[in-house]
Amino acid sequence: MANVGFAVGAPHTDGPRGARGQAGGAGGAATGAGLIDSVLASGTKSGYVFTVATSGATGTGPSTTYTVNGDPQNSQTGQRHFYSDQSGVIRANVSAVATATDGPLQ
Length: 106
Prior knowledge:
Blueprint: H1 2-13, H2 29-32, H3 38-41, E1 44-45, E2 48-55, E3 65-72, E4 81-85, E5 90-93
Antiparallel strand pairs: 1-2, 2-3, 3-4, 4-5
């Protein structure tokens, strides 16, 4: 259960400033700014794989939207899949990759 606690909190440590502008991993500016550690920046931590995707950038401006998914590496490291976006709401799904349409954590 400790893995689930970490997976639920991790999307809040990364936000639009932490996303590196492409799918995969959570690294980039967030590591250099001290917002996340280097292990989470690699994309895998505590039995979960984290994927960040950003969009909404115009010209040389920053991304304005993002999504973060936290998925268990296997059934031994976790049972729930997590999703968050710029709204800050964490959503979960027990049978598939979580999306914006899944229910929020209670």
